[in-house]
Design a protein that fits this description.
With about 150 residues, the chain is mainly α. It has one domain.
Length: about 150
């Protein structure tokens, strides 16, 4: 697994509870499923709203994080501290994706909205069920090369 060992993720000093994060992402999975079943844009709008809060590092005000925290307490999940930076990057990618889905819906392109929401659903399932964060790969191949070039100048 040499390829997986060489991936560069963003890092920070701030830690978050990885179990609560995975539960929050799993709640997003169910909201996306609700969107696919009903076609109601309110599901995507709520995800955009929640991701906007999290994208500006205000996760403590997120209703989804609050619910995930309550569920974690009820089922007695242990605290698992992880680096916040990769998850913050993933939330920002999620915000972009969910916003695109909502915009497509609002301008009368529901098929495009469902396709973009399907991409978000796939990423959320990978993160919540398999603990596989595609955000690290996106960062490694789309952001990090430009950051390295900027450092050499």
């Amino acid at each position: 697994m040499k390829l997986l060992d060489s991936i560069v993720c963003p890092i920070s000093n701030k830690k978050i509870d990885g179990n609560i994060n995975r539960l929050a992402v799993f709640i997003n999975v169910w909201l996306l499923v609700g969107y696919f079943i009903t076609g109601s844009p309110y599901y995507i709008a709520f995800i955009v709203f929640d991701f906007t809060i999290k994208a500006f590092d205000k996760g403590k005000y997120s209703l989804i994080n609050w619910i995930a925290g309550k569920i974690a307490k009820i089922i007695k999940l242990p605290i698992k501290l992880i680096d916040q930076a990769p998850k913050l990057f993933a939330v920002r990618v999620g915000l972009l994706t969910a916003s695109m889905s909502l915009i497509f819906y609002l301008i009368g392109m529901p098929t495009a909205s469902f396709i973009v929401a399907g991409v978000l659903l796939t990423l959320a399932i990978l993160d919540s069920v398999f603990d596989f964060c595609m955000g690290c790969y996106m960062y490694h191949y789309l952001v990090f090369p430009f950051y390295k070039r900027k450092q050499k100048i």
